[in-house]
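Hello forum,

I keep getting stuck at the same step: I have a sequence, I want structure tokens, and every attempt I make locally crashes halfway through. Rather than fight my setup again tonight, could one of you with a working pipeline run this one for me? It's a single chain of 145 residues.
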Amino acid sequence: MSPANLQSYLAVGAVLFALGMVGFLARRNMIVMFLSAEMMLQGVAVNLVAFAKYRGDLGGQVLVLFILTVAACEAAIALALILMLYKRRRSLDVSVWQELREADQEPDQDEERLPDIAKPEDFQPLTPAGAAPPATAETQEISHV
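Reply #2:
Ran it on my machine without issues. Output:
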């Protein structure tokens, strides 16, 4: 691999890492934050594979296998955490979870107010799957024809 190709791979890895970092710092949704952390890990993995190919050894590729293992474990734990937190508060906004911080830290106050969450009674109920709609005079006439 030539140094020019190495620079291209390193640029792609740096862009992935930078986009992940911006997404993690700028967003308040927990799902987007965890996806941004995964993107940062993938940026590091691209750089490690590029350096391994450039140097001609497998050290970077072995480290990438460990990164992928850690990313899979992080995704499983993050999904469980997100589901548990959503069940409690019905929101995935990070600012709602002020009680999770350390005891000696003061809670942050957001400048913008979150939109009100729709209550379950605001939604129209759906008919169960497979249930026949109630018969009307028109449908009975059509079925007899």
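The mean pLDDT is 80. If your local run keeps crashing, start a new thread with the error log.
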